[in-house]
Design goal:
binds magnesium ion, five-stranded parallel beta sheet, Rossmann fold, eleven-stranded mixed beta sheet, 16 strands, alpha/beta, binds adenosine monophosphate
Length: 340
């Protein structure tokens, strides 16, 4: 299949994206978090194509994207007060809410679960495409399953060229990590995936919010994943990644002992020239927003440079840094070494 290149700044290209989606096609679209691979969420055959293009396991559900608040109610059994509160504070924006699903959500989209994940993105092109399509859009990240999420149209093409109908280029993504996912389907709201909207933000809005242990730790063998996307290795470049937890002088000393062919550093901005191996940075140490925005591009760059073993600087697993730590620790398959 020929993948059409569309430009998000051209109204006729937005219309074209809407038309392809209405006809059951697959279109990669920019959002404020990462590029999404969109299909009509109410069309099971269209949703099934997403799994084929990504090589996504059938048990990993999709997020449904809306462009108006009144599109939420028909997708879920009911809209609780907690959902209204979160929507008022954080929508449109990088927050996904899970609720018991309505019958119109096909099992392909919910991966057989009784719940559905819904998000109202803030990116103007994402909203315009949803409106042009006239239906809610199921859209996971537009990468090959397991690879780092795409934060630019070029990343999408690297993974999906020839496998999808079109990619709508809207430039680089502002947030750069996937949405915060919170489930409201249980007794207490529970954070399943950290993102730009933090646990503290959610607690300020709702009071009590639990943090799922799988955010920071590997699932125990045989345990059911509260969010299937939490399953083991994810977001990974081809190289083996090891997180080194400790201050810069110890990191540099460690790399001096472990330099060799194919060894690269994934460090904070400004550290590159002080390291004994080729290095790619992912934002300044004190700027978690920058780290969020740059992480996935840095992971893809390591592949382009043919890294075989990557030693990564470890972000603080707290506040805004939690989202970055959560992605990196999965890219590293939970391999962490404490320095000192
Ligand atoms: P992606 O869009 O590729 O970032 O993947 C969507 C994320 O949302 C994955 O981590 C899914 O496991 C999670 N998700 C989607 N729907 C549900 C649901 N109904 N229950 C729990 N997690 C979900
Ligand atoms: Mg994904």
């Amino acid at each position: 299949m020929q993948t059409e290149r569309l430009d998000a700044s051209r109204p006729e290209d937005i219309r074209r994206a809407g038309e392809l989606l209405r006809k059951g096609g697959l279109v990669a679209i920019p959002t404020e978090t990462v590029y999404g691979l969109a299909a009509n969420a109410l069309d099971r055959a269209a949703a099934a194509k997403i799994f084929a293009a990504k090589g996504r396991p059938a048990d990993n559900p999709l997020i449904v994207h809306i462009a108006k608040l009144d599109q939420l109610a028909p997708l879920v059994r009911e809209v609780p007060e907690t959902a209204r509160e979160l929507a008022a504070r954080f929508w449109p924006g990088p927050l996904t809410v899970i609720l018991p699903k309505a019958d119109c959500i096909p099992a392909e989209v919910s991966a057989g679960l009784p719940t559905v994940a819904v998000r109202f993105p803030s990116h103007p092109a994402a909203r315009a495409v949803i409106q042009a399509a006239g239906v809610p859009l199921a859209a996971p990240s537009a990468n090959t399953s397991g690879r780092p999420s795409p934060t630019a149209a070029g990343h999408v093409l690297d993974d999906m060229d020839g496998k999808i109908d079109a990619v709508l280029d809207g430039g680089p993504c502002e947030v750069g990590v996937e949405s915060t996912v919170v489930t409201l389907a249980g007794q207490t709201p529970r954070l399943l995936r950290p993102g730009h909207i933090t646990l503290e933000d959610l607690r300020n809005a709702l009071g009590e919010v639990e943090a799922d242990p799988a955010i920071l730790h590997p699932l125990k063998e045989g345990a059911a994943a509260p969010s299937p996307g939490m399953k083991y290795k994810h977001y990974a470049p081809k190289a083996r990644v090891i997180l080194l937890d400790g201050p810069f002088p110890l990191y540099r000393a460690y790399l001096e002992r472990h330099a060799g062919p194919g060894v690269m550093a994934l460090c904070f901005a400004g550290e590159e020239s002080r390291l004994p191996v080729p290095a790619i940075s992912y934002g300044a140490e004190s700027e978690p927003w920058e780290q969020e925005r740059e992480l996935f591009d840095a992971l893809r760059e390591l592949d382009k440079r043919d890294a075989r073993l990557v030693y990564a600087r470890c972000p603080e697993p707290e506040g805004r840094g939690l989202a970055v730590y959560n992605r990196l620790i999965r890219a590293a398959g939970f391999e962490v070494e404490r320095l000192g």
